UniProtKB/TrEMBL annotation, chain A:
Belongs to the binding-protein-dependent transport system permease family. This is Iron ABC transporter permease. GO terms for cellular component: plasma membrane. It comes from Harenicola maris. The chain crosses the membrane at residues 16-37, 68-91, 98-119, 151-171, 250-271, 304-327, 357-382, 402-422, 428-447, 479-500, 532-551. GO terms for biological process: transmembrane transport. InterPro entries: MetI-like, MetI-like_sf.
TrEMBL record, chain B:
This is ABC transporter ATP-binding protein. It comes from Harenicola maris. GO terms for cellular component: ATP-binding cassette (ABC) transporter complex, substrate-binding subunit-containing. Belongs to the ABC transporter superfamily. It comes from the Bacteria. PANTHER family: MALTODEXTRIN IMPORT ATP-BINDING PROTEIN MSMX, TREHALOSE IMPORT ATP-BINDING PROTEIN SUGC. GO terms for molecular function: ABC-type transporter activity; ATP binding; ATP hydrolysis activity.
Length: 567, 349
């Protein structure tokens, strides 16, 4: 007997599910598979020679070491900040929690190259902000951030939100009565925290740590902006430098490097999955009200300290960026008589590359958001209705292109599209390769919110429409689309937000005429135009914050689990 | 309007049987209740009728059309069956107004604007919803929502109406008035209705015939009176009404009635003669009278006030647990005598 029959409903649905699934698999998983094949096949036959050769080069080994050191210690920094904030926000009676959480999310949404740029503007001898305040170090003294320590610090700040979010979600899922039972038994204050709360949150903390490490490992913007000037290469920047310097002749070699990053990342993802499943086993029972342990007299000092940290990691660098963008030339102090918008004008309206980049990034981001919505909405719904084996496998793998470092996906995309099968055509160097890479990379960003909202939808909504005779198409249009529209909108905004700022993927895939905003900022800074880079970066920060505020304003209309910072 | 014919319909969920060998027929225009404890397969049967599930074995015919045939691997999707379905959760579309919820089936059938308006108004009026047409479902009470769901399935003139525990989410008072709405609806439209419930009072009050289900099988399919007075087996006897089933020690036929030895007393019993020798009797409160001279000595273990009368739970000297009714209050522990009058006897393996 066929599977169709067992699940009931029509065969068209089953066929449609298979069709969309195949498209989705081609878009998301095919590149990853292609990369794997490249690594183990040399000149058409299986071989590990190239792999052995590349892995024994000293540059590879030192880059691997640098990657592990910066990602590992960066994760420790994230852990310290993320844990402190998560425990205090989730467990105590702090005021203005929503505002605090929103501010903590901004570092995650600001692209890493802009984070790096903004921090270099508040340190070092030519910092406009420090000059204005008269505390700049003498000319000739080094930029302290151009160092492994600088990379570690910024990686830590960039990714603390991940730890914060996963740990806070874990803390919120602790049933309140567990804590109350401990207190009834006589456990006080810190003892409750240490002996009940912490053990229960360890799995989510471990999962968060693993995924933070993977994200830090794949980060390109920060080690590129800080490490390349210092001659300190990590695996992603090594791949970039090789490909930028030698072109596609080193494709086989960088594929091996990409696989190396991918292998480390996948082991991190597996660790995360393991702990995530453990956590689900752990916590049964309903999480009723969130905990609010009274801080008493310590509340005001703690609040001041937390907001102070937010100020230092968020507001101060932005001031640095702003100051740099408002002086006529880099290195001058900002005074009333020197303040000017000339760099803003220059970069936003005069530079042809920037104008192109705005068009490209806007088109790519909105195009990817639209394409993903068209694919994900019916797919998520069909996968929810009929859980075939293929659908379940895809469900467990579709996060891969987003979780894997961007460099890995870029190399995979090049391999897949440099020679289109059965033709002489290539997509490498065109805007389409970036578009397809975005669709693959941000698939999960669109799919998961829609899936979350459809899971909460009463299946009877659809069945009711079915029983009155509505066809598949009609139900999708009249029932499913309106009911999941808020989630789809949130997903689309998130895809747009992430793609609009993206650097890692496009850095390896751009060519003249197809540059994105991320690439332009990187190139401007690289060629010494720090002021213009800052002005452009400031513009992007405003766009990001406006879009985040939009999601926040609409968040009441979204189902639970759709807005990533409202778990 | 159509009759429904099931022939050896079965359903397994990943190896576990949920329905086994259901062969039965619901006549055109009948009000059928599927009654049983949770997990008995009644909802699965309803969902097979609707087409949300496909049967693993057997055939299903509604009216002239074959809807599902497991051997041939066919299963007509729900949207092509022209069936009305009323959900326990009402399943009103929250983004559509009451009017749009009701008119949606007509839109799908491509009726003209005027025709849609006319039929929608008629359906709204007949369910007493005319004043609520422009409200959203979230602005309605539970009973009103259920009436919208009813109007929605009435408007498309379905050949059968399936109802999945539609009153389970309503309070007791509303439940009684909605029962009236359903029976009125049935007598007005003459539609074949299949109603799933676990509440036997609900089934007894509304249905022409009740299929009592347990463990994926129909245990007895009969009128409410027959189910109560002439149960076929131990499950039905115990599930319907407050029956206690006790074994019969010996039987002798004397004239018109059978004489049986029950709990040590010799009593006249009724039975269906074609069913062969009887082995058990069903003792309901109305078969038991309290009398000082009663043959059965028993002790009261619990007294429950039922409003105007008391339900006594008693244990006889030989250990059987019996339910009796009385208008006088008795204390727990009181000794009394019971007389059995004409219980129903049946054969049970």
């Amino acid at each position: 007997m066929s599977r169709t029959l067992q699940n009931g409903g029509s065969r068209t649905e089953a066929r449609l599910l298979s069709a969309i699934l195949i498209v989705a698999i081609c878009l998301t998983l095919a590149p990853v598979l292609r990369l794997f094949v490249e690594g183990v096949i040399d000149q058409g036959s299986p071989s590990l020679t190239l792999m052995r050769e590349v892995l024994s080069q000293t540059s590879t080994l030192s880059a691997l070491k640098h990657s592990l050191v910066t990602a590992g210690l960066g994760t420790v920094v994230s852990l310290v900040f993320g844990c402190a904030f998560a425990f205090l926000v989730a467990l105590t009676d702090l005021r203005a929690k929503a505002a605090l959480v929103f501010c903590l999310m901004i570092p995650m949404m600001i692209p890493p190259q802009i984070t790096a740029l903004s921090w270099t503007q508040i340190m070092g001898p030519s910092s406009v902000l420090l000059k204005t305040l008269g505390i700049a170090p003498p000319l000739g003294s080094p930029q302290p951030l151009y160092s492994p320590q600088g990379i570690i610090l910024l990686l830590g700040i960039q990714h603390m939100s991940i730890i914060f979010l996963t740990l806070r979600a874990g803390l919120r899922s602790i049933p309140q009565d567990v804590v109350e039972a401990a207190r009834i038994s006589g456990a006080k204050g810190l003892r409750t925290w240490w002996q009940v709360v912490v053990p229960l949150t360890l799995p989510s903390l471990a999962a968060g740590t693993a995924i933070t490490f993977v994200t830090a490992l794949g980060n390109f913007g920060i080690p590129a902006m800080l490490g390349i000037p210092a001659g300190y290469a990590t695996l992603p920047t090594l791949v970039y430098q090789k490909l930028a310097g030698m072109g596609t002749t080193v494709l086989a070699e960088v594929s091996v490097l990409a696989m190396l990053i991918g292998a480390v990342a996948v082991s991190g993802i597996l660790v995360q999955r393991y702990f995530q499943s453990r956590q689900k086993l752990h916590l049964v029972g309903s999480a009723s009200r969130p905990l609010a342990l009274p801080l008493g007299a310590a509340r005001l000092p703690v609040e001041i300290a937390l907001w102070g940290v937010v100020c230092v990691i968020l507001v101060l660098p932005m001031f640095g960026l702003l100051a740099t963008s408002l002086v006529p030339a880099y290195g001058m102090p900002l005074r009333l008589d020197t303040v000017t918008f000339s760099l803003w004008h220059e970069v936003l309206f005069r530079q042809p590359a920037t104008a192109r980049a705005f068009v490209n990034s806007f088109g790519l981001a909105s195009g990817a958001a639209l394409a993903l919505m068209v694919i994900c909405l019916p797919l998520a719904w069909l996968m929810e209705r009929r859980k075939t084996r293929l659908a379940r496998i895809f469900d467990s793998l579709l996060d891969l292109p987003y979780a894997l470092p961007g460099v890995v996906l870029s190399i995979a995309m090049i391999l897949l599209l440099i020679n289109l099968p059965f033709t002489e055509a290539t997509l490498y160097g065109t805007i389409w390769i970036i578009f397809l890479a975005y669709v693959a990379r941000f698939f999960a960003v669109m799919f998961r919110p829609i899936q979350a909202s459809l899971k909460q939808l009463d299946p009877a909504m659809d069945e009711a429409a079915q029983s009155v005779g509505a066809s598949f198409r009609r139900r999708l249009r009249d029932v499913i689309l309106p009911l999941s529209a808020p989630a789809a909108a949130a997903g689309a905004i998130l895809v747009f937000l992430t793609a609009f700022n993206e650097l890692t993927v496009s850095a390896l895939l751009w060519s003249s005429g197809t540059e994105t905003l991320g690439v332009v900022i990187f190139n401007l800074d690289d060629s010494g135009e720090t002021g213009m880079a800052s002005a452009l970066a400031m513009t992007i920060v405003f766009v990001v914050m406006a879009l985040m505020a939009l999601i926040q304003l609409l968040s009441r209309r979204f189902p639970k689990g759709v807005v990533p910072w409202q778990t | 309007m159509a009759d429904i014919d099931l022939s050896s319909v079965g359903k397994t969920f990943s190896g576990a049987p949920a329905l086994q060998d259901i062969t039965t027929r619901f006549e055109d225009g009948e009000f059928i209740a599927l009654l049983g404890p949770s997990g008995c397969g009644k909802t699965t049967l309803l969902r097979i009728l609707a087409g949300f599930e496909a049967p693993s074995t057997g055939r299903l015919r509604i009216g002239p059309r074959e809807m599902a045939n497991a051997e041939a691997g066919t299963n007509l999707p729900p949207e092509e069956r022209n069936i009305g379905f009323v959900f326990q959760s009402y399943a009103l579309w929250p983004h559509m107004s009451v009017r749009r919820n009701v008119s949606y089936p007509l839109e799908i059938r491509r009726f003209s604007k005027a025709e849609i308006a006319r039929q929608t108004d008629a359906a709204l009026a007949s369910t007493g919803l005319a004043d609520y047409a422009d409200r959203m479902p979230s602005e309605l009470s539970g009973g009103q929502r259920q009436r919208v769901a009813l109007a929605r399935c009435l408007v498309s003139d379905p050949c059968a109406v399936l109802l999945d525990e539609p009153l389970a989410n309503l309070d007791v008072a509303l439940r009684a008035s909605m029962q009236g709405v359903f029976t009125d609806f049935h007598s007005r439209t003459g539609a074949t209705m299949v109603y799933v419930t676990h509440d036997q009072a609900e089934a007894m009050a509304m249905a022409d015939r009740i299929a009592v289900m347990d463990q994926g099988r129909i245990q007895q399919f009969d009128t409410p009176q027959n189910l109560y007075e002439r149960p076929k087996n131990r499950f039905v006897a115990e599930f319907v009404g407050r029956g206690t089933v006790v074994p019969v020690q010996s039987v002798e036929s004397g004239g018109d009635a059978l004489q049986a030895q029950v709990l040590g007393a010799k009593v006249a019993v009724q039975s269906a003669p074609e069913k062969g020798p009887v082995s058990h009797v069903c003792l309901r409160p109305e078969n038991l009278t309290i009398a000082e001279t009663g043959d059965l000595r028993s002790k009261v273990t619990r007294v429950t006030y039922m409003g105007g009368k008391y339900m006594l739970e008693t244990v006889t000297d030989c250990g059987a647990r019996l339910f009796a009714e009385t208008r006088a209050r008795l204390e727990v522990g009181a000794q009394l005598g019971l007389t059995i009058t004409l219980p129903w006897a049946f054969s049970e393996d």
